[in-house]
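User: structure tokens for this one?
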Amino acid sequence: MAASEAAHGEHHASAGVDNRLLLMWIFLASECLFFGSLISTYLIFKGESLVRPLPEDVFDIPLTSLSTFVLLFSSFTMVLAVYGAQHARPRMMKLALLATIIAGLIFLGFQVYEFKTFGEEGLNLSTNQFGASFFVLTGFHGTHVGVGLLYLGSMLIGSMRRNGLGRDTATHVEIAGLYWHFVDIVWIVIFTVVYLIP
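Assistant:
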């Protein structure tokens, strides 16, 4: 039986969970620790800055709320992509992947604009402890969004081939969906802790 599974490229562990899904869950668990340490650092240093500008001087909550909505919308389109992959609807999957990528690019555009605006108002990595911890935290999240966009873009390009993503299409898209939803959930936490809690 093991030989036949190997011949067909099976990736299931003894518990019946695909090894690739399990590895993504383990990776995301380690990322939780990483972002947990960054958020803790931000909270520790947030009130220690004696040099302006401070959060209340630079934050534009309506604009950041709009970018947050765009990122949350991308989670919905990612769900549609997974659904399309699982139900053999490749056109739906491709359109939803494209919509997710566009929403992610818009979110990054908002973040670049925010960073540029903060810089013009005198806040950067070396201005004060708030600036250093803020830019590191949100910058690393933006980097994760960028990596996710490369991931989704490679899947979209791969799905255009004659054989698409192969017979494990649903699994591939589901794994990408896990990563993307993780990025969205982390942003909800960051948005709440950094922007909404005074």
